[in-house]
């Protein structure tokens, strides 16, 4: 990241400092193994302050080990895996997820 910052591209810090009811923050990440990167995910402030977290290529079938406090979890157990965590304060009727997703 330091190398990119030193080049002519303008990179802005978009870290979300705290959740807010004034906006909806969605994090979308190709995690390429939730098992290997769960601790990284838990330490990322922007992800932690998101209302919705979409993870691709989780490569996990048992998500019970990877729950996030105050978040509901739904997943698709495909070859590579897809998981969506959403803040438990969001009303379920406001969230329209594909019928293929299964609640955890």
Summary tags:
104 residues, alpha+beta, 5-stranded mixed sheet, 3 helices, 18% helix
N-to-C terminal Cα separation, in Å? 35 Å
Q: How would you sum up the major sheet?
A: 5 strands, mixed
Structural domain tally: 1
- Residues in helices, as a percent range: 10-25%
Computed structural class: alpha+beta
Which strand order do you get reading across the main beta sheet? 1-2-4-3-5
Percentage of residues in DSSP E strands: 15-25%
Question: If helices are DSSP runs of H or I spanning 4 or more residues, what is the number of helices?
Answer: 3
What is the typical, i.e. mean, pLDDT?
77
What's the helix-strand series? HEHHEEEE
Write down how many β-strands occur, each being a DSSP E stretch of 2 or more residues: 5
Describe the structure.
By secondary structure, this protein is of the alpha+beta class. It has one domain. 18% of the residues lie in helices and 23% in strands. The chain contains three helices and five strands. The chain has helices at residues 2-6, 34-43, 45-48; strands spanning 26-30, 52-56, 71-76, 82-87, 102-103. Strands 1-2-4-3-5 form a five-stranded mixed sheet, with no helix packed on it. The termini are far apart. The model has no long low-confidence stretch (mean pLDDT 77).
Q: What is the strand and helix layout of this fold?
A:
Elements: H1 2-6, E1 26-30, H2 34-43, H3 45-48, E2 52-56, E3 71-76, E4 82-87, E5 102-103
Parallel strand pairs: 1-2
Antiparallel strand pairs: 2-4, 3-4, 3-5
